[in-house]
Fold this sequence. Notes:
Helix content is about 65%, strand content about 10%. By secondary structure, the protein is mainly alpha-helical.
Amino acid sequence: MAHPGDDALEVNRLVLEEITTKWSLPVLACLCSGPLRFNALRRAIPKATQKALTQCLRRLEASGFITRTLVSTAPVAVVYEISALGRSLEPHLRALLGWADENREAVLAAKRSSQSQKIS
């Protein structure tokens, strides 16, 4: 793989940071399955606080990965949906999540080993 310059690496880091913040991957994974309202996302990701989920959704919308649509019902509802840009990320997202599933135990074992070596 070619080595990009420092400026390109920094821009790539910033772009990747948008999708790797704490709740971004779970949100994107949920929305790849279809549009969801805010409370449905909260139920799907119960460990995310309302504030954290709201901030994550705003960040992903501002970066173009998702869209936010107001539905004129009583009461007004907000629906979040993966955008075309977010959809282009889906195969890579699924690959990353699959890799994490396959290697979770090895990573956790390495962390435990590293922590026990620091204590000794």
